[in-house]
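Predict structure. Chain length: 295.
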Amino acid sequence: MKLYAFDEVDERLLLLPLAARRVLDQLGLRLSRAGWQSLPLEARRELTLLGQSATVDLTRARTLVGGAEPAAEVGSAAADPPADAAPHAVTAVYGEGRPLAPALWTGLSALDRYALAKVASKGRAERIAAAYAEIVGASALSTHLSPTGVVRMVDVGAKATSLRRAVAESFVSMGAEAFARLEGARAGKGDVLATARIAGIQAAKRTSELIPLCHAIAITHASLEIELDAASRKAHVLASVETFDRTGVEMEALCAASVAALTVYDMLKAYDRSMELGPTRLLSKSGGRSGDYSR
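Prediction complete.
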């Protein structure tokens, strides 16, 4: 059950927590303290839990609130603040010293966004500062940080799905014998280029298992091309990855290029242990709110 410290509500739920206020706002109801306390503790707990959900079950909530005495007053229903960016009225209250960038705002839960907006609407300076510190905190520096500075995976559930694509490259530089073996398909371990391509595609598919904060996404396409440059004795690895999802595939493309290059090294190391890998870099990405990038 989500209870904010700045809200000064404990598990006895003698006061209305912000999660329950979110439910009442969506119902367009106002409940007095006496009405709230007249509800059984289990009903108050359930209303609080409903308020934590991304989408509130208003039918169930209305049934629970219906048992209050005195009954809730009927007013105007209020929707949650938008998920894509904080309203200007909210950002103006928190000011430049307490930023609410779109990427950060989207990464918050629906309840966190509601709580920040609700506190902002009341205009109490101490409560505004306390709410920001508890809900945002170190997240203002990075969406991968929790309010207390702990590393976390960003919540992308509120983002819209869209076509996203990324292209990355890597290089393997090697000596004459290793390159000759590669070019002539005479490596003792077998077909280096085919194996490296498969390894790169596998790496793209398993990136979330390798990089702790990456999301598991549905890859719709992944391809690996490896070109050989005899003049420089280099293998140029080019990885392309696509998805229709809520987050990008830059890391998938970079992992694919990296693992393909490592596979080339592994299969040729018997002929040259001084091979060099890199640079490995992102060439382009498209899709998502951050827009397109091209090196």
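Summary: The mean pLDDT is 92.
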